[in-house]
Amino acid sequence: MQVTVKWVDGVMFVGETGSGHAVVMDGPPDHGGRNIGMRPMEMLLLGVAGCSSFDVVQILQKGRNNIVNCVTEVTAERVDAIPSVFSKIHLHFIVTGHDLKASAVERAVKLSAEKYCSASIMLSKVVEITHDFEVIEV
Predict the structure, then answer these.
(1) H helices within 6-117, ranges in order?
(2) Average pLDDT, stretch 8-28?
(3) Is the Cβ–Cβ distance between 71 and 94 less than 8 Å?
(4) Which secondary-structure segment (H or E) carries 123?
(5) Other C-beta atoms lying within 10 Å of the C-beta of residue 37
(6) 116 secondary structure, DSSP code
(7) Distance CA 98, CA 64 (A)
(8) How far apart are the first and last CA of the chain?
(9) DSSP strand pairing (86-98 vs 3-9)
(10) Which of 21, 55, 87, 117 has the lowest tally of Cβ within 10 angstroms?
(11) pLDDT tens digits, residue range 27-75?
């Protein structure tokens, strides 16, 4: 994998991926930004949520579960020091489907956390990462 980050102005940057996608990153006004894009640490959380969500959906689909939606809410805490690293990250999966068994969702979340999600497994070496879920029947 390869990505490139280009400085635009102030504390705004454009990140471009080797797969041809781009995203704007910017800081808050009190740090010289214009609040035009996501913060880099927010993007890190999005990466963890995206990686984990991908796994959970794929595992449930391969198990022939009738899943119609998956939303992952992430909350995180940062230390009050420099560098302001994450101290805790919590992923809450809201999985919607027909005749979904909680045990299947629990298994998918556990497999993602312990075996498949490269992002969360890597970060779990230095950050406390927790997971939970809820199932919504439609």
Answers:
(1) 40-62, 102-111
(2) 96
(3) yes
(4) helix 118-123
(5) 20
(6) I
(7) 11
(8) 39
(9) unpaired
(10) 21
(11) 999 999 999 999 999 999 999 999 999 999 999 999 999 999 999 999 9
Question: What token pair was written down for 22?
Answer: 């781009």
Does residue 39 contact residue 12 with C-beta atoms inside 8 Å? no
Task: Give the C-alpha distances (Å, rounded to integers) separating 58 from 34, 73, 83, 132, 133.
Answer: 37, 18, 35, 18, 16
Sheet of strand 22-25, all strands in order from the earlier edge strand to the far edge: 3-9, 12-17, 22-25
| Structure-token pair, residue 130 | 């927790």
The answer to whether residues 130 and 88 touch, using CB atoms and an 8 Å cutoff, is yes
Distance CA 68, CA 73 (A): 17
Per residue in 65-86, pLDDT tens? 999 999 999 999 999 999 999 9
Amino acid occupying residue 66: N
> In Å, how far are 16, 67, 75, 124, 133 from 104, measured between CA atoms?
36, 11, 24, 23, 11
Per DSSP, 31 falls in state G
pLDDT tens across 84-103, in order? 999 999 999 999 999 999 99
